[in-house]
Amino acid sequence: MKLRILKSAVTNPWFNLATEDWIFQALGSDQKAPDTHTLFLWRNAETVVIGRSQNPWVECKTDKMAEDNVFLARRQSGGGAVFHDLGNTNFTFLSPKEGYDQTANFTIIINALKKLGIDATLSGRNDMQVGDRKISGSAFKHTADRSFHHGTLLVNADMQKLGDYLNPHPLKLKAKGIKSVRSRVANLVEFNEDITHDTLSTAIIEAFCEYYGQEANVEELDEASLAKQPTLNKYYQQMSDWDWRFGKTPEFSHRIETRFDWGMIDLHMDVKQAVIEEVVIFSDALNVELIDTLKESLTGIKYNKGDIRAKLDGLKQAQPDLAAQVDDFCGWLVGEMES
To answer: Could you tell me the pTM of the whole model?
Structure first.
């Protein structure tokens, strides 16, 4: 088996996840790939990365993220939501199916940490910890002929922001899918104050080569060198697209209720692929036309505050006699969607 080592200088998460998928898919069909173990090292600017089957509105505070220019990314693999910043080092192992060895991958990371004076152990199937503190989580993806294992190592991540963005607002959502399990976590700098992304990356590369008894040159990846790859550009467009990040959300329902001067509202919305497919409103409001019009306006639009606000603003202009009540309803609904 040959070795290949790639390291990204780019911190855009959509680019890095697209690069990971490009390596997995495009290089997986390359003549060299069937006999190659590939190591990819990368890190992201401030990002919440959710698993393929997760609901972003349940897992994270999407409003605060937008306000603070924090990326939302959905990866191809499963697992829970994680917060990335420049204090995280991310690793990906890609191998042909017959040569894939998950235990070997964990051993390489544990050996790398030993080089830095940190004794880590494998915890369960997915995580690594130091003592009883989690310092790494992993997820996996397999096809008929190749596999990958990727994970994150907490080097010096901002734990306050991790809590800020990953502790969801308690919306009345009944979500189908995987909900994250919060764990007691620690940064590696707590065990070695001198550790950095670069020193950790170097240690992982050394441990990777030592484990397989070979040497390999490190290929530095950047946007300029990879932008010419049409397949990579296609993956990047998918990763950055709203329909991938939000539209792939499993079916869920959102129920909220309140009382206005003009009547009580009990709103039920069924959402599929981030589109509001069915709306039921129970109300004691005297204006039945208002309730019917609100239901019609919300049905079939994206579960997105901007789209909802735009549609209801249009309704106010089209029916100015309902403007005051529609304005009340819009302000309430958009406020309840903040998370």
So the answer is: 0.72
